[in-house]
Amino acid sequence: MIRPVLACTALATLAACASPPLALRAYDQGSLPQAVQVPAAHRVAMETVGTGTITYECRAKADASGAHEWFFVGPDARLADRGGRLLGRYYGPPATWESIDGSRVTATQVAVSPAGTGNIPLQLVKANPAMGQGAMAGVTYIQRVATQGGVAPAMPCSASNLGARQVVQYQADYILYKAM
Fold it and tell me: Rounded to two decimals, what is the model's pTM?
């Protein structure tokens, strides 16, 4: 299902942006690439639609080759339920999913899998213990699926624009799991 990407770029406007109502889509693990499948004995605790931006910065490559590349700085997205109701926020670094109840969780990447030209990859992350009690307590894994946009800018990154930042729009479903 293709959904429009909304422009929600500043924290002050995140609460005001509303995603259109979306049909509930269950994520059959068998339909996803094996690398990003959640291990058995975990159940879906929450499905969210993340809509926002990813910031990239033009930097020298770490390999000392003299080349330059767009470096992922971090996301800033509104997390909503499938009906558009605000549930929280996803931001980083470090990658943090925060509920409106104040609980939050960070995570470490386990795997990625291509999601098609122009889209950031599908992703599986393993959650660290939650901070605070609430919706994020007990979250064990988070999948990023149904990605749209978010890839590094197409404009050149070179010595002439080192330090330049570009913000790109993206949308993805974040499926949060808890152990059964």
Answer: 0.83
